[in-house]
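Complex record, two chains
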Amino acid sequence: MASSLPRRILKETQRLAADPVPGISANADESNARYFHVMIAGPEDSPFAGGVFKLELFLPEEYPMAAPKVRFMTKIYHPNIDKLGRICLDILKDKWSPALQIRTVLLSIQALLSAPNPEDPLATDVAEQWKANEAEAIKTAKQWTLAYARKSLKKALLHQHCLVLAPTKIIET
Amino acid sequence: MGGRQSSVTEERPRSNSVDTQVNIQRHVERPPNMMTAHEFLQTMRNARFLSSSSDSNASEDDAGPSHAMSGSGRRGLHVRPGRLHGHHSRRSVPVFMMDLKCPVCHKTVPSDDADIHLVMCLTRPKITYNDDVLKEDKGECSICLEDLQAGHKIARLPCLCIYHKQCIDDWFKRKNCCPEHPGDD
């Protein structure tokens, strides 16, 4: 049986609901308060614009002394995110600090979508493509967004997820 | 050599696991998944050995006496200054660029930089703090998100950050840096 939920987790959950981040929704699972269903809208300035990406976030027993585990569930063409949805982001590994929160982690992931970093790749094939022919890579990323991240968008709207979307054209589908 | 390379990782004792093999290593208690500095250096050498067949250093120092490590990971190190130079030429060999986890700061470092990184890590001054009991309320502790209230036992760090003493003690067990000012490493 899981030990009692630390107050910090309760507080974070409440604050996320009361003061959501634009373009991001994070809802605790009904049966597991350490497991969050996350949606991130692709930033407007990125090839992921117009898509909504589903992620899962889990707070391990050691949290906040250890980083949350986060994974993309929606397929995405990004040099720092691999086929399994694992994310190459320093704050999720050795740069974790207990002063960071679910909110700041998700903001960092959103920022990673705006600024792919092929120099520190996780998906090496994507990174190679990104370095060799950036225009082509961006084109592929846009195609993948259309192909895979639109479905999540429809689902999000259907299920009335409290997704506070970034302004402009996401609703046009 | 391939055999030894894999044995380094397999040797790591896993606490709490049901022991199917007899563990003959007499290690001092340490967290699981944490290499001693000795193992770290050895893994490093082996990695380098694989990436460059001309590295004669790889087979030296195998039976170092440095397994007895206390939790701080600061004792029992044999880093020879002569080993610190001349590895950068191998940057051009992309094969077997292994990332290794530093036993001191837990940062993941490329094997090429591991020697120098470890020395930097071990010589970095340790952050200490002053204990205090708060005389007035001081906002929120950014570790537990609870209020820092008058009467609470707190820690004052050199960067002037304050946290509950218990909170920062818990964090320092993992990493010796201010949560809000981790600095560059």
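Note: The first strand of chain B starts at residue 99 and ends at 101.
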